[in-house]
Amino acid sequence: SRDYSAPVNFISAGLKKSAAEDMSEDDSDEDEKPVKQEEIPKEFVPKKLKTGGNFKPSQKGFVGGTKSFVDFGSWERHTKGIGQKLLQKMGYVPGRGLGKNAQGIINPIEAKQRKGKGAVGAYGSERTSQSLQDFPVVDSEEEAEEEFQKELSQWRKDPNGGKKKPKYSYKTVEELKAKGRINKQLSAPQKELSQVKVIDMTGREQKVYYSYSQISHKHNIPDDSPQQPLGKDSKPQGFALPELEHNLQLLIDITEQEIIQNDRQLQYERDMVVNLTHEIQKMSEVLSHEETAISNLSKVLEMVEECERRMQPSCENPLTLDECAKIFETLQDKYYEEYRMSDRVDLAVAIVYPLMKDYFKNWDPLKDCTYGTEIIAKWKSLLENDQLLSHSGQDLSTDAFHRLMWEIWMPYVRNIVAQWQPRNCGSMVDFLDSWVNVVPVWILDNILDQLIFPKLQKEVESWNPLTDTVPIHSWIHPWLPLMQARLEPLYSPIRNKLANALQKWHPSDSSAKLILQPWKDVFTPGSWEAFMVKNIVPKLGMCLNELIINPHQQHMDAFYWVIDWEGMISVSSLVGLLEKHFFPKWLQVLCSWLSNSPNYEEITKWYLGWKSMFSDQVLAHPSIKDKFNEALDIMNRAVSSSVGGYMQPGARENIAYLTHTERRKDFQYEAMQERREAENMAQRGIGMAASSVPMNFKDLIQTKAEEHNIVFMPVIGKRHEGKQLYTFGRIVIYIDRGVVFVQGEKTWVPTSLQSLIDMAK
Fold this sequence. Notes:
Layout: H1 19-27, H2 62-71, H3 83-89, H4 141-153, H5 173-185, H6 187-194, E1 198-200, E2 207-209, H7 213-216, H8 242-310, H9 321-334, H10 336-341, H11 344-359, H12 373-383, H13 400-418, H14 425-435, H15 441-461, H16 473-476, H17 480-483, H18 488-501, H19 511-516, H20 525-535, H21 537-545, H22 557-563, H23 571-581, H24 583-594, H25 600-611, H26 616-619, H27 622-641, H28 643-647, H29 651-683, H30 697-707, E3 712-720, E4 723-728, E5 731-736, E6 739-743, E7 748-751, H31 753-760
Antiparallel strand pairs: 1-2, 3-4, 4-5, 5-6, 6-7
GO molecular function, one term: nucleic acid binding
Domain G-patch: 79-125
GO biological process, one term: spliceosomal complex disassembly
């Protein structure tokens, strides 16, 4: 009888047999009995490995494995090979795996028959029982033995003859919920895969599926191969019920989906409760804010209605401008948001404008220029739109204060300016000065450009400098702080009228200077210099030409008339006049005087007297300095060459001392000017070291000489190799490229500054 408890369709993993041997074994299958564990030779029983592992043949491959152990290497006896001997010499034990630690396996490949005709992996994992994962390495011999006995017991039949209990796997609700959350996150790619069209051609008939999930749920149709009839001792095999399995699986899936869907719905409802709770809180805050706003608006409305009631003519207690300002201050302080959002323009037009008109009805700006400035400044803070403070644009539709000033205050200003006389500028200037910080900028510009400037321009056109007793600067200059560059168009006609008036002018008339002097800082430097050169300098040149220089009887009026304009004309223009019209005559008189045996003491006084008539700024000019030095040279030559000079005692010494003194003064003045310039540059940040360090080596020597009270001055007319000679106390020196040379017995010797100071002391 056949043993149906043996595995069906078993494929041995041992040596491949021929077809004849397979046929003989099938014929004698009924007489054969399965090899039992006790019949296996002792040497072929699996032994524990050195690593603690053991060989675990599966139930299906044990018999085949036994045959493999017996026949392993049997073919070698028909050959001359010595492979078996070599393996044994290297430590190989038959029945164990290869390798140093016997970690190899005897049957590395084992075939496994699929249930149906599906593709690879369609019926689950296809791992064989003899894979490497079935031979875990254990940590101890006790564990290895226990694991071996457990695996070995699976080969034996249950002595009680009972069937193995099926193992069931359960899923908890929490696992389903977790799975549902994961699937929810991956819903997008699964949705795309669920819409893929799949054609299954693994069976006899072509089938079309519309998702990959339908492949795993398709029925396992049993093979159509004819079944063998049941024998007498044969046991019936189980029947496959794919429809029932499908329905059960479908019910399970539906139940799982319902659980997952209910969990998602519960989570959604909880989130909705939280969201609605927050919404309720927000709405309660909004409701509270709206209630507060309604209450504030009600109070604001009551105050506005009270103002309108008190503005009625029949009211016993009429509203005043000060009381109205206090009401608006209350609105701004206590109800700022409502006041800021309200239409202040309409509110001011309805309430404030009538009161403002009544307030200014008897106002004369020129008589009381400060009237209303405080109340208007208060209304400016109440009504002016904050958004317009960043620019000076005119927007009467959005700013109540600008509209108030333009419609209520501006008409009074227009009327008073129309009656105003420009020569009486004091009252109008005071009026605008007092209102300049209150009136909007664009309104003030309108007053100056459209009302004041046309009046001034018309008055300048009618002004005559020859007949008008009031100087023009007295009623033009007060407008400079307010109008500034706006007055530029008036300067050109003023200069033309002044030039016409100066055509017949003589320098003896000092009134011209009084008229022109106030305009020196008003006109630009270029226009002022051009005006002086064209209209004043020629007149002064004619006056100097008329000057007669007489040492015995000198008339200085013409000279005083010219020098009196020194601050009005530039230094260069004045120096040009003196070089051209004064010094030629003055030097000529000096030469003629020296040629007639003069008194040198009188000449010295005459020279010093004329030099004292000029200011230090004029004397510092190189041209004037050269002219006076030329006079000294003429005097020195006259003293040296004149016989009479020797007859007059002390004449040469006096002239030499005069020359020495004047040259020293010039040198000291130059040094002082250089120090002032250095200090000014240091103050302006141009030369930080200029105030402490001299500009050059000569200045350093001058500074050291002043510190030690040593006279340091140039020697007039003396040079060495083109270098100026100086006296440093009693020593004669010259400076060349930052080095001091001292005059020795035969040559010039370079020395240090400290040595020079020691020698001079």
